[in-house]
TrEMBL record:
Chain positions with 4-aspartylphosphate modification: 58
Residues in Response regulatory domain copies: 8-123
Official protein name in the record: Response regulator receiver protein
Alphabetized CDD domains for the sequence: LuxR_C_like, REC_NarL-like
Highest taxon of the lineage: Bacteria
Gene Ontology molecular function: any one: DNA binding
Any one Gene Ontology BP term: regulation of DNA-templated transcription
PANTHER family in alphabetical order: TRANSCRIPTIONAL REGULATORY PROTEIN DESR (PTHR43214:SF42), TWO-COMPONENT RESPONSE REGULATOR (PTHR43214)
Domain HTH luxR-type: 154-219
Listed InterPro entries: CheY-like_superfamily, NreC/VraR/RcsB-like_REC, Sig_transdc_resp-reg_C-effctor, Sig_transdc_resp-reg_receiver, Tscrpt_reg_LuxR_C, WalR-like
UniProt keyword list: DNA-binding, Phosphoprotein
Organism: Streptomyces noursei (Streptomyces albulus)
């Protein structure tokens, strides 16, 4: 049985031929394509009805822009993973998508294999970006981190992380994937996921992007 079996994916794009081609590639690779949509409002309705694990989302949609779709769906279901698949590599579009809750951002120039790999990695919470865009996102969070945090890390009520959770958090902030972290610490991929989920719960954060910002605000990315 492949890793894709049972993984529920939805494809949103306003170009029918492109949307159908992506859905077909995903289905042929073993993913369960539970729905497709051609505009923003339709995307929200169908995603709420079918509960996909991963949403492959174009940004340029009629009715409701992709970033609004992302923000609304992730806001209602923080466990939803969103992979933006866009023709735009504009920095403003990338940052807006990530701040709206997208886990990754891939350009439409990517190959089918790159898309399939991106969906697999997005499903487990890895941030996936077309080369060059990951540095942009981390750079933006470093810029935001120069603003004082409302809650200092040494406050009495600050959550206590274990030594291993802090170690994993530091590597997350450096931009390593779960697989890379597992190899670095000589632990399983599942153990890394568990540490990240525990840390998210303790810090009351919703996704890995927020976790990266938390770590950078506390200087963990440079240690």
């Amino acid at each position: 049985m492949s890793d894709e079996t049972g993984l529920r994916v939805m494809v949103v794009d306003d170009h029918p031929m492109w949307r159908d081609a992506v859905a077909r590639d995903l289905a042929e690779a073993g993913f369960d394509v539970v729905a497709t949509a051609g505009d923003g409002l339709q995307a929200v309705r169908r995603a709420q009805a079918t509960a996909p694990d991963v949403l492959v989302l174009d940004l340029n949609l009629p009715g409701l822009p992709g970033v609004r779709v992302c923000k609304e769906l992730v806001g209602g279901n923080p466990s939803l993973r969103v992979l933006v698949l866009s023709a735009s590599g504009e920095h403003a579009d990338v940052l807006e998508a990530v701040k709206s809750g997208a886990t990754g951002y891939l350009l439409k120039s990517a190959s089918t294999e790159e898309l399939l790999d991106a969906v697999r990695r997005t499903a487990v919470g890895d941030p996936v970006f077309t080369p060059g865009l990951a540095g942009l996102v981390l750079g933006e969070y470093r810029r935001l981190a120069t603003e004082p945090s409302p809650a200092a890390a040494d406050e009495p009520d600050a959550p206590r992380l274990t030594e291993r959770e802090t170690e994993v958090l530091r590597l997350v902030a450096k931009g390593l994937s779960y697989k890379q972290i597992a190899e670095r610490l000589v632990i399983s991929h599942r153990t890394v996921q568990n540490h990240v989920q525990n840390t998210l719960g303790k810090l009351q954060l919703h996704n890995r992007v927020e976790l990266v910002r938390y770590a950078i605000e506390r200087g963990l990315d440079g240690v």
